[in-house]
Specification:
Number of strands: 12
Structural class: alpha+beta
Helix content: 25-40%
CATH topology of the largest domain: Alpha-Beta Plaits
Strand content: 15-25%
Number of domains: 2
Distance between the termini: 64 Å
């Protein structure tokens, strides 16, 4: 790759759930509307990532009877949280989810047309004009990010604003984020920045703060979009231990090849023995 690998660091501790990232993503990428009605699941109207939702802001409401209702922002200022109806306290966990642009991307492994490719920035992009709608990439994604549009079956997902990167601009979602919850830049620099942020939160008493997807040794070789979380990944709808779903393909092909060789050997031996019997 000719360019330094770039990605997203999403600091959920400063996400205010404004959905500016969702709007900016849709506007820049001309993504169709896919949710104008509340789903009944908190203040969410898009449910999850999909073919027409490349950014999704999750709202997770948690009762907090321990009274811990304030989190320090990056500049040291606290954010207030509202009391629960039963007299306890409520904590809102908000997080803007996106395609992870995996280091080892299973969607790339299974795409038969080359529609999915790795860009010079280390990101993974779908070329809709090449996609044949086979859908192999959908179950291959360990995060359930990719989806096909019903109209023609083509797959869609976040491109990390590939067209903007090519002209030196940052992705639309990061540009629109008012709290810098979504941070864009060189991946190694973001990882260092994220580690410092976790240390800052721990010193402030937010001991639940942890990073997700940043480790190059995780099941997908590290994510190009990783997160600072304030609870377990499952709370945010993220798999706790994602793995590249095609990791066993080489071994499977080896076993299949060995089985094929054995089968051919058996067939050949049968013909040889049959020829001897005829003599």
């Amino acid at each position: 790759m000719s360019e330094e690998r770039v990605g997203f660091f999403t600091d959920t501790s400063v996400c205010i759930g404004c959905k500016a990232c969702e709007v900016a993503c849709k506007e820049w990428n001309a993504i169709p509307e896919d949710g104008l009605e509340l789903t009944g699941m908190s203040y969410d109207n898009t449910r999850a990532l999909g073919a027409s939702t490349w950014r999704h802001v999750a709202f997770v409401e948690q009762p907090r009877p321990d009274g811990r209702t304030r989190l320090p922002l990056a500049d040291g200022q606290p954010t207030a949280e509202e009391p629960a109806p039963d007299g306890g306290e409520v904590r809102w966990l908000m997080s803007s989810d996106v395609c992870k642009h995996c280091t080892h991307a299973a969607c790339l492994d299974v795409c038969p047309t080359g529609s999915l490719f790795r860009t010079e920035f280390g990101t993974v992009v779908v070329q809709q004009d090449i996609c044949n709608g086979c859908g192999y990439c959908v179950p291959a994604c360990p995060y359930g990010v990719i989806e096909q549009r019903p109209a023609d079956g083509r797959a869609f997902k976040c491109t990390l604003c590939y067209d903007r990167l090519g002209t030196g601009l940052e992705p639309a979602c990061a540009k629109a984020c008012p709290t810098e919850s979504i941070q864009f830049g060189p991946l190694e620099e973001l990882r260092e920045r994220a580690a410092l942020r976790v240390d800052e939160l721990h010193r402030a008493g937010v001991t639940d703060a942890r990073l997700y997807g940043h480790d190059p040794d995780n099941g997908v070789g590290g994510d190009g979009a990783f997160f600072l979380l304030l609870d377990e990944p499952e709370v945010y709808g993220l798999p706790p231990d994602p793995v590249v779903t095609t990791r066993d393909l080489p071994a499977m092909w080896r076993h299949a090849g060995a089985a094929a060789v054995s089968l051919l050997g058996g067939i050949a031996l049968t013909f040889v023995l049959a020829g001897r019997e005829r003599r």
